[in-house]
Amino acid sequence: GVTTSEIDNYQELISLINLATYSGVDFSDQIYTIITNSNDSSVLKSAFSYASVCGYDPHSRMINAMENKLLQNIANRKDDGFYLKLCDGVYNICKTMGTPVLYNQGKRILTKMLTMNFSQSVRNHLTETLNLILSLQMWFSALKYKVVFCLFSKKPANYFLFGVLHETSCTFFYAFFSIF
Fold it and tell me: For 167, which DSSP code?
């Protein structure tokens, strides 16, 4: 069984994760370790909440750990909160990091979840979230082509606004330049 000191440690761990969530500091490696090593659904829900608020996962370790937890079937399928938080964490990592590889991984995770037996509310949330990831992916692709078109367009223009897409994030650096 679980001892009282282990329960206190879990509560302390949950409190620390909640503090980290709003600190603005990158704790993705620590959250990865927690997701990987914990089988307690309360701790995992808090870790997924961190991912859904922060979304910064530079080495894709958190999203990989989340996918592994899903495949391990740790939580009871009736624990909607667990799967809703996992779903939100996957989406926000995809949105924040903005890479095609993560979009594909996010779609794969959510599609796998759709094949599992969940409540209707979880299934509805999964469908909505999967559509959001597809929208992000289409927007990212369209923007990439617009930037290339603007840079190689022979149309006369005084100023262009263009975005330089960083390989590992969807952060945009805006700059103006003139053509004389």
Answer: T
Residue 94: HSE in the Cβ half-sphere, 13 Å Cα cutoff: 30
Question: For 145-161, how does the pLDDT look when each residue is reduced to its tens digit (9 = 90+)?
Answer: 555 555 555 544 433 44
Minimal CA–CA distance to 115: which of 88, 77, 61? Answer: 77
Q: How many CB atoms lie within 10 A of CB 174?
A: 8
Closest C-alpha to 48, from 7, 4, 93: 93
Mention every residue, 6+ apart, whose C-beta is less than 8 A from residue 106. Answer: 63, 90, 91, 93, 94, 133
CA 136 to chain centre: 12
DSSP 75: S
173 burial type by CB count under 10 A (0-12 exposed, 13-18 middle, 19+ buried): exposed
Residue type, 103: Y
What is the arithmetic mean of pLDDT over 52-75?
A: 88
169: region left, alpha or beta (phi > 0 left; psi from -120 to 50 alpha): beta
